[in-house]
Write a structure and sequence with these properties.
By secondary structure, the chain is an alpha+beta fold. Helix content is 34%, strand content 20%. The protein folds into two domains: 9-203 and 377-459, Zn peptidases (Aminopeptidase), CATH 3.40.630; 205-258 and 307-367, Alpha-Beta Plaits (2-Layer Sandwich).
Length: 461
């Protein structure tokens, strides 16, 4: 390949600064389009149309692919003679439910209002700003240099927030289309303590289940409690068998074959403990201390590499004002289990079923299924990881915070691509909560981050 004049990244950054108003207006337009995947929002298709329209307006390739049972996937492929490498830019246009809606300020969950330099609305951080960071970065290269620094594939889906439940079959049928040398996602905020990007080299998979205990065919007067099954008590007792007070999961075989930390993993944990002020994290969360008294390296190790069994929701019977004398006929618990590399969702759900049966809870139903998203882990030495780290250095002036595993796995089940997750939004972005937001200046910096990653990845062999 002939030697070409190097890209001037400062010129790319200058174009981004000069067109900041355009970038902000496009994000406002995208945030104002509701796209709640968990609620089967009819706006999902309209949002896919909007993303496609914005990409084409920016001079980017974009095509919609229909999923069986799910909203469209957007895919684009743009080539360059400047690099033999191909980078996948993964993002998602769906968002979390906005409830409780009355807890939102500044115009509501889809207002995209800007107040004191902060844009508010569902998706401002997770992940519509990430969608546009990729698009505007690519446009900046085309506008300032007439070409890209690396071959790019854009993949933007509409069900990430519910586990990409319809994406797997499409990926499996399009493996050649999706082949790339590296992939990354810009989804989330910077580290709370250092205000530097987190760079996550892996993924904890999530197994969602709902446990249901049933009793009589209707709620019955509590005078009859001595004669009735009690779903609420059954469920409480069943939950108590799953995890002990030390937060160790008691399901037989749960820890079999777990990923064993390497020296580079331990060094990343020590480095993070040296650089990250965990007291700032406690203040952000409003707590005096971490669970089990963990701190320092132990706290980071637990957060990144420990399997979890979280009760996300628990409900039975009457929960309104005053009292109601009933024996509820049903109790439900929603759980999410975080699985680290080498744990298979299919195995985990079978182990949970056997555990409940063995403890006398065969009558408790498990609603849930193993989804396509597997856990994974890559080395910090991978070119994709090195490109993201170098880009963060270029934009922030300091090394980022490198993590082992965090929370896009569906693609990786069918096409292995070294994948990195990072982000650029401000702390307090309120992901998944009311008043989700992004500082406008951080969004513009995030576009530069995306451009720097493209530049760095394209340089390597």
């Amino acid at each position: 390949m002939a030697e070409a004049r190097p890209f001037d990244l400062d010129a790319v950054f200058a174009w981004i600064d000069a067109h900041a108003d355009e970038c902000v207006a496009d994000l406002q337009e995208l945030v104002r389009q509701p796209s709640v995947s968990a609620q089967r929002d009819p706006g999902l298709r309209a949002c896919a149309d909007l993303v496609e329209s914005q990409m084409r307006s920016d001079g980017l390739d974009a095509r919609q692919y229909t999923l069986d049972g799910g909203p469209p996937v957007l895919f684009g492929h743009m080539t360059t003679k400047r690099s033999s490498k191909t980078m996948m830019c993964y993002s998602h246009y769906d968002v979390q439910p906005p409830e409780p809606v009355d807890a939102w300020t500044h115009g509501g969950p889809f207002s995209a209002d800007i107040v004191d330099g902060v844009m508010y609305g569902r998706g401002t951080t997770d992940n519509k700003s990430g969608v546009l960071a990729f698009n505007k970065a690519a446009k900046a290269f085309l506008a300032s240099h007439g070409e890209l620094p690396v071959n790019l594939k854009f993949l933007c889906e509409g069900e990430e927030e519910i586990g990409s439940i319809h994406l797997g079959p499409w990926v499996e049928a399009n493996t050649e289309l999706l082949e790339a040398d590296g992939m990354h996602c810009l989804d989330g905020s910077v580290d709370t303590a250092t205000l530097l990007p987190d760079v996550d080299l892996g993924l904890k998979s999530v197994l969602f289940v709902e446990l249901v205990a049933r009793g009589a065919n209707a709620d019955v007067h509590s005078l009859n409690f001595p004669l009735l099954p009690s779903p609420a008590w059954d469920l409480v007792r069943a939950l108590g068998t799953i995890m002990d007070e030390e937060r160790r999961i008691l399901v037989d075989g749960w820890y079999d074959g777990l990923y064993e930390l390497q020296e580079e993993d331990e060094e990343q944990l020590r480095e993070k403990a040296r650089r990250v002020d965990m007291e700032a994290v406690k203040r952000e969360w409003g707590i005096d201390g971490f669970a089990l008294g963990r701190d320092g390296v132990a706290a980071h190790r637990a957060r990144q590499y420990e399997p979890t069994a979280n009760i996300a929701g628990l409900v039975s019977g009457y929960t309104g004002p005053g009292s109601k004398t009933i024996v509820p006929n049903e109790a439900r618990a929603k759980m999410d289990f975080r699985l680290i590399p080498h744990m298979r969702q299919e195995d985990a759900i079978l182990k949970l079923r056997r555990h409940l049966d063995a403890h006398g809870f065969a009558h408790i139903e498990i609603h849930g299924e193993a989804r396509a998203e597997p856990p994974y882990k890559i080395s910090v030495k991978e070119p994709m990881a090195q490109a993201v780290i170098a880009a963060a250095m270029r934009v922030w002036g300091e090394p980022p915070i490198v993590n082992g595993v965090s929370a896009e796995g569906t693609i990786l089940k069918h096409v292995w691509i070294p994948c990195v997750l990072t982000g650029f939004a401000n702390p307090g972005a309120n992901l998944h909560a009311p008043d989700e937001n992004i500082v406008v200046a951080d969004y513009i910096k995030g576009i530069k981050y995306a451009a720097a990653i493209m530049h760095e990845f394209g340089k390597g062999p």
